[in-house]
């Protein structure tokens, strides 16, 4: 009896430790989405304060995506060479100082530049979190762990715009970046005191450009990697198109306030939370490959309704909310499964693979957000049209790539 009780206690302790690790990894992953979603309700006030336009302010979103894309390519090799902790902490400190500096910017050009630097730091958490999932959990569990991370990540679009709208309305847009600095400090403490080290440093790995490029190319040309990474990247770009276009669509076209926009954004993001948890149930019966294919068919259908409904002027605010909710819910299935399938072939180079996956996803996302900003007009068509095109591209990539994975 005593042995059974001791074993039960040990199992409980292991489960608690596992939960804490997943929570920390989720918070690291959520720092990026929080950096995006928190300041969206402040776009109009930022534009007024810096004597600019919301379209110009939206370019700070593109610069953030570019910074994350480039930064991940840097951190991937560093995480493999020096281990996970040191590069991760350096990145978080860069993010912290950049967040504080943004409080003092006086022009939209400065905002765009410092957001780029902020992204270079913050992306360390995203790369390290994905690599640590591969380090700390069996391959058979990674899709489920990514679904649990998605639960934490998906909370940010629910909480962040609402918090951002409240903070902007009461304390001004500068307070948003003070909040982000505090979140970075919390992450630093969690990483230093409670996060396991993960894979050991690979002292044989060269940091010279040629070997690094060769290693990235070796990862990229793996059929399973490029198929599911590009599929997931195009699917996620529909989300980025929505993020870039929604402040204009809801606050300027539909005339909602910052607080109302925060609530709308949160309600729509709830679909991500629900879908990511339904995904863990479906994985007990279906493979990740099957779930991804069905998911993308649904995304294309929702995207078509958004696009053609906008062209025919059939969509008002509430139907827009419902259709975007359906479209973005598919991301709760696409993200965890494409991520797990992309990283599955790699054990030794998980950091490099994670970095390349994130760089491709955010690089495509940066181009999509810039395109939405450049095509901005007095309609919702730039947002809904690009969302539909992203869904078509994701499905096309999956159809083309899966045949090569099987070869």
TrEMBL record:
<feature type="transmembrane region" description="Helical">
    <location>
        <begin position="112"/>
        <end position="133"/>
    </location>
</feature>
<feature type="transmembrane region" description="Helical">
    <location>
        <begin position="86"/>
        <end position="106"/>
    </location>
</feature>
<dbReference type="GO" id="GO:1990961">
    <property type="term" value="P:xenobiotic detoxification by transmembrane export across the plasma membrane"/>
</dbReference>
<dbReference type="GO" id="GO:0042910">
    <property type="term" value="F:xenobiotic transmembrane transporter activity"/>
</dbReference>
<keyword id="KW-0813">Transport</keyword>
<dbReference type="GO" id="GO:0005886">
    <property type="term" value="C:plasma membrane"/>
</dbReference>
<dbReference type="InterPro" id="IPR011701">
    <property type="entry name" value="MFS"/>
</dbReference>
<feature type="transmembrane region" description="Helical">
    <location>
        <begin position="295"/>
        <end position="315"/>
    </location>
</feature>
<feature type="transmembrane region" description="Helical">
    <location>
        <begin position="355"/>
        <end position="375"/>
    </location>
</feature>
<feature type="transmembrane region" description="Helical">
    <location>
        <begin position="173"/>
        <end position="195"/>
    </location>
</feature>
<dbReference type="InterPro" id="IPR036259">
    <property type="entry name" value="MFS_trans_sf"/>
</dbReference>
<keyword id="KW-1133">Transmembrane helix</keyword>
<feature type="transmembrane region" description="Helical">
    <location>
        <begin position="145"/>
        <end position="167"/>
    </location>
</feature>
<keyword id="KW-1003">Cell membrane</keyword>
<comment type="similarity">
    <text>Belongs to the major facilitator superfamily. Bcr/CmlA family.</text>
</comment>
<feature type="domain" description="Major facilitator superfamily (MFS) profile">
    <location>
        <begin position="21"/>
        <end position="407"/>
    </location>
</feature>
<feature type="transmembrane region" description="Helical">
    <location>
        <begin position="61"/>
        <end position="79"/>
    </location>
</feature>
<keyword id="KW-0472">Membrane</keyword>
<feature type="transmembrane region" description="Helical">
    <location>
        <begin position="263"/>
        <end position="283"/>
    </location>
</feature>
<feature type="transmembrane region" description="Helical">
    <location>
        <begin position="381"/>
        <end position="401"/>
    </location>
</feature>
<protein>
    <submittedName>
        <fullName>MFS transporter, DHA1 family, bicyclomycin/chloramphenicol resistance protein</fullName>
    </submittedName>
</protein>
<feature type="transmembrane region" description="Helical">
    <location>
        <begin position="321"/>
        <end position="343"/>
    </location>
</feature>
<dbReference type="InterPro" id="IPR004812">
    <property type="entry name" value="Efflux_drug-R_Bcr/CmlA"/>
</dbReference>
<dbReference type="InterPro" id="IPR001958">
    <property type="entry name" value="Tet-R_TetA/multi-R_MdtG-like"/>
</dbReference>
<dbReference type="Pfam" id="PF07690">
    <property type="entry name" value="MFS_1"/>
</dbReference>
<keyword id="KW-0812">Transmembrane</keyword>
<feature type="transmembrane region" description="Helical">
    <location>
        <begin position="20"/>
        <end position="41"/>
    </location>
</feature>
<feature type="transmembrane region" description="Helical">
    <location>
        <begin position="225"/>
        <end position="243"/>
    </location>
</feature>
<dbReference type="InterPro" id="IPR020846">
    <property type="entry name" value="MFS_dom"/>
</dbReference>
């Amino acid at each position: 009896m005593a042995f059974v009780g001791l074993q039960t206690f040990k199992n409980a302790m292991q489960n608690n430790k596992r939960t804490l690790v997943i929570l920390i990894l989720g918070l690291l992953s959520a720092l990026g989405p929080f950096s995006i979603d928190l300041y969206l309700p402040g776009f109009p006030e930022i534009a007024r304060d810096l004597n600019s336009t919301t379209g110009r302010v939206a370019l700070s979103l593109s610069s953030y995506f570019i910074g994350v894309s480039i930064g991940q390519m840097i951190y991937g090799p560093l995480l493999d060479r020096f281990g996970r902790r040191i590069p991760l902490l350096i990145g978080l400190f860069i993010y912290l100082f950049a967040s504080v500096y943004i409080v003092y910017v006086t022009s939209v050009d400065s905002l765009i530049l410092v957001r780029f630097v902020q992204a270079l730091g913050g992306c360390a958490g995203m790369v390290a979190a994905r690599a640590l999932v591969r380090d700390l959990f069996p391959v058979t569990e990674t899709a489920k762990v990514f679904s649990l991370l998605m639960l934490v990540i998906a909370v940010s679009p629910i909480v962040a715009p609402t918090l951002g709208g409240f903070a902007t309305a009461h304390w001004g847009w500068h307070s948003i970046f003070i909040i982000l600095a505090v979140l970075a400090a919390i992450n630093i403490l969690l990483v230093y005191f409670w996060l396991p080290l993960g894979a050991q440093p690979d002292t044989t790995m060269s940091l010279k450009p040629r070997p690094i490029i060769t290693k990235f190319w070796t990862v990229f040309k793996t059929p399973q990697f490029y198929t599911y990474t590009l599929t997931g990247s195009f699917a996620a770009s529909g989300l980025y198109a929505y993020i870039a276009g929604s402040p204009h669509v809801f606050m300027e076209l539909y005339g909602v306030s910052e607080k109302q926009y925060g609530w709308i954004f949160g309600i729509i993001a709830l679909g991500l939370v629900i879908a990511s948890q339904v995904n863990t149930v479906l994985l007990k019966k279906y493979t990740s490959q099957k779930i991804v294919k069905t998911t993308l068919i649904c995304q294309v259908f929702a995207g078509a309704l958004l696009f053609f409904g906008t062209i025919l002027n059939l969509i008002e605010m509430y139907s827009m909310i419902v259709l975007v909710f359906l479209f973005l819910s598919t991301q709760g299935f696409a993200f965890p499964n494409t991520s797990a399938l992309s990283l599955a072939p790699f054990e030794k180079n998980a950091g490099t693979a994670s970095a390349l996956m994130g760089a491709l996803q955010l690089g495509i996302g940066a181009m999509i957000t810039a395109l939405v900003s450049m095509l901005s007009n007095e309609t919702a068509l730039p947002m809904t049209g690009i969302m539909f095109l992203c869904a078509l591209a994701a499905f096309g990539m999956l159809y083309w790539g899966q045949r090569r994975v099987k070869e």
